[in-house]
Amino acid sequence: MTSLDQIIDDFAFLDEWEDRYRYVIELGKNLPEMPEVSRTSENKVQGCASQVWLVTHATGDAEDPLLTFEGESDAHIVRGLVAIVLAIFSGKRASEITRIDALDIFGKIGLIEHLSSQRANGLRSMIRRIKSEAEGRLPA
């Protein structure tokens, strides 16, 4: 999977929206395929116009576990957005995930203003889902 730093660097070199759009699709193509068995209603992200599934894996410290995520979508551009979301959040501690401003990152790479309202809402739903998963893994 492409790292967030690499994604940010790559976006810095892409001036045209069409090039960025193609790059997002390419990121989605490089996303590992989620097993069919994981594409359940429980893993489906609510609030996305396209179908999106997220699976959370927790390891390590029970007080502040390391979370990794798998994601999938049936739409090419959304699959690319999933890849970026996973690059932002996957492999981080739950406490760190709760503090990340992913929408700010999407704004800095110039994607937010080019997303349709439906895609932007779906992106927010993915982020909320991941943050909720992280918050649920932390002690009250």
Main attributes?
140 residues; Sufe protein. Chain: A; 3 strands; Fe-S_metab-assoc_dom
- Widest sheet: strand ordering: 1-2-3
Helix amount: 40-55%
Straight-line N-to-C gap = 32 Å
Average pLDDT score: 94
Structural class: alpha+beta
The number of helices is: 6
Pfam family, one: SufE
Family: Belongs to the SufE family.
InterPro entries: Fe-S_metab-assoc_dom
How would you characterize this protein structure?
By secondary structure, this protein is α+β, with helices and mostly antiparallel strands. The chain has helices spanning 4-13, 17-30, 76-89, 94-97, 102-108, 117-137, and strands at 52-59, 66-73, 92-93. Strands 1-2-3 form a three-stranded antiparallel sheet. A hairpin with a 6-residue loop joins strand 1 and strand 2. It is globular and about 45 Å long. It holds the Pfam family SufE.
Task: Please specify the SSE layout and strand pairing.
Elements: H1 4-13, H2 17-30, E1 52-59, E2 66-73, H3 76-89, E3 92-93, H4 94-97, H5 102-108, H6 117-137
Antiparallel strand pairs: 1-2, 2-3
Offer a quick outline of the entry.
The chain is α+β, with helices and mostly antiparallel strands and 140 residues long.
